[in-house]
Structure formats: structure tokens, C-alpha cells
Amino acid sequence: MGSKVQNINMSLFFKASILFLTAFFSTFCFPLDPDRIKSPSYKEGRYHNLDPDEELQGKSPIDILKWKLIGPKDPPATEGLTEEVPLVLERTSKDLIAPEGKIRVVWFGHATVWISSTENGKTVNVLTDPIFEAPILVNRLVKLPIPKESLPQVDFVVISHAHRDHLDRETLRFLRSKNPKLQILLPSGMKSFSESEELGSSISQELGQTTSKDSVKITFLPAHHWSRMGISDTNQYFWGSYALETQNKVVYFAGDTGYSSHFKNISARLGKPVDLALLPIGAYKPRWFMKYAHIGPEEALLASKDLNAKSFAPIHWGTFPLGDDLPQEPLLDLKQRLTFPEAPDIKGIYPLYTGISWGMKDGVRILPWTIGSGIDL
């Protein structure tokens, strides 16, 4: 009797082990495109940035442990910092649709931005790096400005890179279920990933590749970053940024990036000013750990000049606690570098909100907005 029970227990143990290993590898192991080696950006066994990127090989668990336990930590960027999270302005589905002849840009938090363009009665809606919940082991500090079930039709999703706070599989599958004609734009090397995750219609892109619908053209452009989704795929998927051109205007989405020559490279590629640059400023501390992969407020201002941007709005802050910076620290750091008019400049802000005004720095308009804020171009 005892041996039978032991055999049953061993059988259950092996079954449980198989289930655990299956779950583990399905969560932390992902397929790689065999043809990634043909990419112009792939050499010496991995994808590369335009500039030298030896510091961007991916942080090991030991590196992260050193950061968390030993430091050092950067001093506060400004006085009076608290744990207070950003205000969320609630929106409806109608709020998200651009009026005729306009582009409407609404920030959903982190790097998720809604971009809507309406021209000649045709509306095209784009979402950048959508994540509606939270990545593994991280808490979401703020809610979405609109319930995900209430979103209007989404035509394009653009993914900047394979990190879990930017490429969220559950969010993508949800959007696919609600939008059968959805087109997902991915960096080079992610075709097999898309197929295995059953993401549906997608395009794996090289630098300079464009995709169009009606009057909207989306171009995949450089970034200075790295990628990893699992345990053995570091820098085996590419990364990048996007320019959305429509109605003779350019909206640039930087994704996640360190500071490098790629911003000037993008300006040269576009050959025209950027009307609105969406640039990350958060998860920027401590600088010794974050600077190679994440620009902060100071570098975002430099990037806006490199891009020949008319205006810029800060993203990638206040949503997930990914760095040492407190929720509103990146924005307060940015604001102290700007000058503001005596009377609030609210031109193009949607909805009009007296707590938000355009600021200025070296001829660039900067909008220290909050989650749910919008801009009409």
C-alpha cells in the first residue's frame, strides 16, 4: 500500500514538475526568428544601435541587486518630493477621436499614447506600446483614463521594443479580439514571436520601413536601447521609434531610449521639423545605472533640439515604479528647467485645464501634461 501511495505521489510530482516547467518556459522562453541574421542591424550575434552600445548588453540579476542594495542613489531632483501620483483626467470614447482636419494625441500613462487623425471624413487611430495592466512583479500606480472596453476602433499598434512594460501580450491579444483588422507593427526579429503569441496580422520592420493607411504614414526609426523578453533572447529582437506623418504634420514617438546621435539621424531622415515629439523622461534614476538606456528630463530637452521639434510632451513617467525616481519627480525636474508665460498658454490643449500650460526651453514648446491630457495639432 505504501509503495502504491509513493508511486502516486511521485507521479503527481512529475506531472506537477512538467506543468511547472511548461509554464516557466512559456513565460520566460520565446522563439527567435532564424532570418534575423539577415537584418542590416544584426551582427556579431545580436542587434546593435547606431552608436557604440557595449553598456547596453542587458542588466544581469547581480547588477540589479547591486543597484537595489548598495546604490549609490542620486540626490532628489527638486525639493518637496512626495509619493503622490499624477492626476488622471477621465476620458470618453468620443474624447479620443480627432475632429476633422486635426490630429489628437492623448496620453494613457507610461509609453502608451493614443494618436488619432481625421481627414476627409476618415479617421485612423494608433496606439503606442499599449499596456493596460502592469508588467510582471510591478504595480501600476494609476488607472487608465478610459476603460479599455470603451476604446474606439484601433487601426495600428506600434511596438518600440521587447520589454514587458512596452510589449504586453495580454493587452495586444485584448486589442486584437476587439479589432479584427488591427495591424501590429513590430521591430525586426519578432515575426516568430508574433506567430507563437497568436497576435494576428503584424509586420516585423527594418529601419526606414513605412506602413500607410489613408492619409497616415508610419515610419520605423532608430532608438538607442536593448531588448529582452525571456531568459535567452537578450538583444535578439530589435528596437526603435516611430514617426507618424499625416496632414502635413509629424508626430514622433521615441519609445524607450538613451541619448545618442540617433536623434539627429532621425531629423536628417525626416528632412522636416517634428511638430510634436513624445519623449520619455522617467525611470531615469540612478543615472549610473539608467543613463545608457533611459534619457531623463535634461537629455529629453537636448533630444527635442536634435529632432528639430516644435514641441515636446513627456511620457514614460508616473505610471510604474521602475527607477529610484518618485512618481512625479521626472515631471517636476523637467518643469524647473522651463519658463512659463505669465498667462497660461493653453493653445491646442484638450481638454482645456487651467493646471496645465505650455512651457518653453530654447524655442521648443514643452507641455508638462498629466495622464488623460490631450493635444490637438
Automatic annotation (TrEMBL):
Q: Which UniProt keywords apply?
A: Hydrolase
Give one Pfam hit by family name: Lactamase_B_2
Respond yes or no to whether keyword Hydrolase is given for this record.
Answer: yes
Tell me which residues make up the Metallo-beta-lactamase domain.
Answer: 125-317
| Coiled coil listed as a keyword | no
PANTHER family for this protein: N-ACYL-PHOSPHATIDYLETHANOLAMINE-HYDROLYZING PHOSPHOLIPASE D
Q: What is this protein called?
A: Zn-dependent hydrolase
The organism of origin for this protein? Leptospira langatensis
